[in-house]
Write a structure and sequence with these properties.
Shape: globular
Distance between the termini: 27 Å
Strand content: 15-25%
Largest sheet: 6 strands, mixed
Number of helices: 7
Structural class: alpha/beta
Helix content: 25-40%
Number of strands: 10
Order of helices and strands: EHEEEHEHEHEHEEEHH
Radius of gyration: 16 Å
Length: 195
């Protein structure tokens, strides 16, 4: 089974944090077996404050990242607030400890973090359209396509804002298990199979 670790960082956006669970968690084999094991972790295994008026209690710490086939980072905080060097160092260490063949996925503004830690250098990527110009200025080594819903560069996949995370996760299912499985997931979740 494909193991997916969702890394929830402080002030995570709850909608986007739940997308991998909803979409990938709905992917079933022809005989009804789950195709993905999706679990959420934090950098220390403790609860995480969201950007809403509640926190989420995660069941896992960073050890989950070491054995994940796919690591998803949902958006957190605000792109207007600079990322702290401590957070970048911590995330770099965590990603360096992940399997070399694991796939890395950012949803919405989490592309800022991947760019800040050098994971998007010399790659094509996308993020939320409203921060495209500031992203381009901050990360000139990244080829930003602000018009794309998601960009797949093989081991690194980025998605634009909010609901584009659904499109991105459906793309992951399609890439991993084919269009029939992705279409069943889309039908079950009542979303377009491909935009």
């Amino acid at each position: 089974m494909h193991r997916v670790a969702v890394l929830a960082l402080e002030r995570v956006m709850p909608f986007e944090c739940s997308i991998p669970h909803r979409i990938l968690g709905a992917a079933l084999s022809a005989d009804g077996q789950p195709l993905y094991d999706v679990a959420t972790c934090s950098v220390d295994g403790r609860p995480v404050k969201t950007n809403a008026d509640f926190s989420i209690a995660v069941q896992h710490g960073p050890e989950l990242l070491r054995r994940a086939d796919t690591i998803v980072i949902p958006p957190f905080g605000s792109p207007e607030v600079p990322l702290s060097p401590e957070l970048c160092d911590r995330v770099t260490t965590l990603l360096d400890g992940a399997r070399a063949d694991s796939r890395l996925v950012s949803l919405c503004g989490a592309a800022y973090l991947l760019a800040a830690v050098g994971r998007l250098d010399d790659l094509r990527a996308t993020t939320h359209w409203s921060v495209a110009e500031s992203f381009r200025q901050a990360f000139p080594r990244v080829s930003l396509d602000a018009g794309a819903l998601f960009v797949d560069e093989g081991r690194v996949v980025t998605a634009a804002g909010a609901a584009a995370g659904i499109d991105c996760c459906l793309h992951l299912v399609r890439a991993d298990h084919g269009a029939d499985v992705a279409n069943r997931v889309a039908r079950f979740c009542v979303v377009p199979p491909h935009r």
